[in-house]
Amino acid sequence: MSAILIDGKLVSQQIREEVRGLASKLKDEHGTIPGLAFVLVGNNPASEVYVRNKAKTCESLGFYSITEKMPEDAPQQDVIDKVEEFNNDERVHGILVQMPLPKNMNEYEVIEAIDPSKDVDALHPFNIGLYSEAKSWTEIMDKQLLLPCTPYGMMVLLEKYGIEVPGKKAVVVGRSNLGGKPTAALLLSKNATVTIAHSKTQDLAAVCREADILVAVIGKANFIKRDFIKPGAAVLDVGINRTETGLVGDVDYEEAKEVAGWITPVPGGVGAMTISMLMMNTYMAAKRRTEEGSAKIQPPSSKQTPKTKSQKHKPFDFAERALLFAHDVIGFINGLPKTTANNETFRQLIRSSGAVGANYIEANDSLGKEDLLMRLRMAQKEAKQSRYWLELLECPESSADNCAHLVSEATELLKILSAMIQKSA
Fold first, then answer.
1. Is 119 a catalytic residue?
2. What is the reported pTM?
């Protein structure tokens, strides 16, 4: 029996129609037109096509869009300055820096310059921390978190085709920051039992055969063969590989379709969802900004409120506290005047404060003792860095108290982490 074809093109079109209606309602009721800014550096032909297609989709959905093309040899600081310009542009609710960037640039530093509330690719460490920390898919949806577009699209396909996730064994083949890791995090949020397999996994085929849901995201043409697949499993192919015969996925489709229960084709499967989910993220960012009713740029967790003094010493989840600290840091920075002297400090502070939460999220009881201690110590190191960069900031007098409060909070986090490390060692 041949597998059921999961038609990404069809579902993608349904999502776009949904977004078109939602965007029209947002405009009619609040006068808000979702806006998406693209930053394209260099002359990569594939990147130019991708950006052009995304801009056309914006137009078809009634979005505002703007594309900033920059030369291959543009200084990295010029790219960051352009991102900062879009951070402060009220017409823009989402910013997408098209990857890959030229080799002379540090992609992480450019990504970290994006206001997290406009990071519609969900690549900023702050957003990674938010969806990784979420305890369920329901929580992710309720908080309207920004999600990485391709894994998000994959989750929508599973839902549309009625493929059960809770309690099922899922194997993700690939561990990249853009593919495997976020895919695993989203499957885990739906209560799948998740295994991440990779090039060092022993007897990879046997591991894959245990999967009720098998996700291939490794970038190797036709790598997943018939003997990798459990009969009746859902097989989602995220790979896109150019070969002499055309585009193919990471899964040998002709072999796999005879064993799998469901399967995505390439092209026309998971990849077809990516732009549609980008549009959904942009709409969500615009909706959240409208609901907040503030011209000030805020990170995604702005609905969380800082703990009052009376609440300060009440026990609560440390991951929440670490992420709240990162939220407060970013909100504080957004309210400061941008000066050349502080630019590097801003970037370092955002990186270190966001990493406090992200590293602690990984430090949980399911990790072995060594991994647990490693993550706790990484969070401790980043908390020290956060305090250091906060103390370096040249803040106006009016912001001195807030800066001192954040330094105090970083010190409190260090005390908690130190105690946890001593207990775990």
1. no
2. 0.72
